[in-house]
Amino acid sequence: MQQIFKVILCASIFVLFPFLNVVSASAPYETMTVSPSGDLIETQTAYEPLGRLFTGVEIVNPEDIFIDSKGSIYVVDSGTKKVLVADSKGSVVAEIGAGILGAPKGVFVDEQGDIFVADYEKEKIFRFSNKGELEHEYGKPDSPLFGTKSPYKPQKVAVDRRGNIYVVGEGSTNGMMQLSHAGEFLGYYGVNRTEVSISSVLRNLIVSEKQKASLFMKTPPAPDNLAIDGEGLIYSVTQGTKTETIKKLNVAGQNMLYPYILDDATLVDITVDANGNMFVMNGSGKIFEYDSYGNLLFVFGGKDDGTNRLGLLKQPSGIAVDRFGRIYVSDKETGMIQVFESTAFSNLVHDGIALYKEGLYVQSQKYWESVLSLNSSFGLAHTAMGKAYYKQQQYDEALEEYRLAEDVMGYSDSFWEVRHAWMQKHLEKILVIGFVLAALYYVIKFLDKRKNILNGFRRMWGNIKRRKLASELLFLFRFFKHPIDSFYELQRMGKASVLSATILYLFLFVAYIIQRFQTGFIFSSYRSDETNIMYEFAIIFVPLLAFIIVNYLVSTINDGEGRFKDIYIGTIYSLAPYLVFILPLTLLSNILSGNEYFVYLFSIRIIYGWCLVILFIMIKEIHNYTISETFRNIFVTLFGMAMLLLVVFIIFVLMDQVYDFVYSIVKEALLRV
User: Fold this and answer.
1) 3-state DSSP: the chain helix, strand, coil percent, rounded to 5?
2) Is 579 within 8 Å of 509 (Cβ atoms)?
3) What local confidence, expressed as pLDDT, does residue 24 receive?
4) pTM over cut 0.85
């Protein structure tokens, strides 16, 4: 019985993987994914190195690899100057282009089975039949639109369903060249844009139009590789830039992906699987997998450190994926084609994404639940679960999932539904309570007018206001109506003291902490569960202390009348709108949805703007300046604050170095003694 089992097992391995010289290997690299907060975190292995393709076949410098709809594998080799063709099992069935190709760089096979090869040396695109016969040569276009001086050094090629040919050429800064099936030049497609730097912006503001024309004009980078999916959409990768390194182009040639999708200037190749998932590879052998919307799924692979382990690459040059989800990567330096196979974990993710992409959120739920059981920090899974709960009208559960995914838009939609249901249930009670309170207010007001029933409360409030500290704290509210008179009374009549100002500074910190951590999820930019009180303390009081000190020094030099005490007290009283209104606004943020975002945004801007106006009045009145002198004082103060912080930073660095020096000496002395 055991002998029969061994025979069956060996036969299964032979049938499944006949072309691999190593059938399995543990991954010598970490697999990363994106957490809900946007950080890269380690996750379960998504792809394992399966082995090497083409054993016993001479491959010198594989430049590109392509897999057609039938599973046939095409590898273009610039070393042997030909294209190797293998069947889906990895057996070489043909060699194309021998004696014709010069330095082939790219290969593509269209739906009819015609093989297109981009030849860098011959400066042509060669089209071969599926039997390897040369059918056509596409040389440099002679169209005036192409330009006589435009370079034509084909490196990569792709063909759409209509037979149009897209060529990536060296130095083609106008984008990909588009040719008809007959070779007619149709134009450029998917041109990259130049990055706007601060220096270029400042230069454009300073120089004249004539000088701009005489300056060297920066040209956009040329695409380096391309791919085409089953729907005919073109994808490209570009090296040497930080924006739009990966592009998914529509019919008009416009990018449909986030421009800062990946900050990597060494991207080599891109390919797309049947579900629209994108696989991008950089020069260090890292492979990035994105879904069709541009969400990062996995990062795996890496640079070979000389140990020659499967899964690591020395000079990656091309990437392709077959209909079973296996990834094929060509390594130009080693002359190998490595194969990666998806694991059970990545298959769960892919199955969930396939249903999610079709809008079948509920059906995809079981896959995402399995993913989260394995990795609870998989961000996309929480978003998909939120969608599933939302479709099933389980809004409370959707709220929790969207919060875990840090998906503000989804959270807002679910919160609106929860709030709407709560309002429908309790609206009658709210109206009754509101009516009762309004009636009670008018009854008390009427009785007080007739019988003075509130005289006791008025006397008590009057006694409180007559207390010095309470009076100084309540003086804060006078700044809303009469800020100019208030600063005069503050400076000349002593309406506020250092004690009251210090209490308000402490209240400012408390109000800031409450706003920081209790603002509604929709409006809060703070997501961390960890709190560093000293850091938060420094965020508030370092700028305030720097402002007070520098403004006093600047004003002393410029004949300002304000004392240090006046500036210390006046600064906190200038923040009266923030001190009074930020807590109610924080409370309000917890009952607003994203549809009322303008209410919160407008209110917070009013508060900050109001504080700045009162602060301007404070500087003007405390120092008895004119308006122009006040503006000059503010600008000099801001510059002085920057210089002060720079000096403090330099001193801190020097002190740290002195400490390290002294510590090393003491440690050395103790060791020697």
Assistant:
1) 45, 20, 35
2) no
3) 40
4) no
User: Coil, strand or helix: which one is 67?
Assistant: strand
Distant-in-sequence, close-in-space partners of 576: CB < 8 Å, separation ≥ 6: 476, 477, 479, 480, 611, 614
Tokens of 212: 């701009």
Contacts 24+ apart (CB under 8 A), 260-264: 261/290, 261/294, 262/288, 262/296, 264/288
pLDDT tens-digit readout, 243-262: 899 999 988 889 999 999 99
**Residue listed under structure tokens 């008179």:** 485
Positive or negative: CA dihedral 371, 377, 383, 385: positive
CA distances in angstroms from 357 to 258, 292, 352, 362, 387, listed in the order given: 18, 8, 9, 12, 12
With beta carbons less than 8 A apart as the criterion, state whether 371 and 345 touch.
Answer: yes
The strand order across the sheet containing 246-249 reads: 225-228, 234-237, 246-249
Per-residue pLDDT tens over the stretch 303-355: 988 888 889 999 999 999 999 999 999 999 989 999 999 999 999 999 999 99
Amino acid at 436: V
Which residues in the chain come in under a pLDDT of 50?
A: 1-2, 4-25, 201, 214-216
In this prediction, residue 670 carries a pLDDT of: 77
Q: Taking a C-beta distance cutoff of 8 angstroms, is the pair 486, 479 a contact? A: yes
**Under 8 Å CB-to-CB from 504, ≥6 apart: which residues?**
473, 476, 572, 573, 579
DSSP for 335-373, please give it. TEEEEEEE-HHHHHHHHHHHHHHTT-HHHHHHHHHHHHH
Phi, psi of 272, rounded to the nearest 5 degrees: -130, 135
Tokens of 668: 């050395």
Are 255 and 244 spatial neighbours (Cβ–Cβ below 8 Å)?
yes
CA distance 666 to 671: 9
Phi and psi at residue 627, to the nearest 5°: -65, -45
**pLDDT score of 197:** 54
| Domains of the chain (ranges, CATH numbers) | 24-34+41-196+217-342 (2.120.10.30), 352-453 (1.25.40.10), 481-659 (no CATH)
Query: SS3 for 332?
Result: coil
At 285, phi and psi to the nearest 5? 85, 5
Burial class (CB in 10 A: 0-12, 13-18, 19+), 671: exposed
- Return the bridge partners of 302, or none: 312
pLDDT for the residue numbered 184: 92
Cα atoms in the Cβ-side hemisphere of radius 13 Å centred on 566: 24
Distance CA 62, CA 268 (A): 13
What does the pLDDT read at residue 258? 92
pLDDT of residue 247: 94
CA separation, residue 197 to residues 70, 212, 238, 242, 508 (Å): 47, 15, 18, 12, 38
Smallest CA-to-CA distance from 82 within 56, 64, 69 is with: 64
**Per the structure block, which two tokens stand in for 130?**
């599926």
The predicted pLDDT at position 23 comes to: 38
CA 176 to chain centre: 27
Residue for token pair 């590789």? 225
Among the listed residues 124, 137, 146, the one whose alpha carbon sits nearest the alpha carbon of residue 182: 137
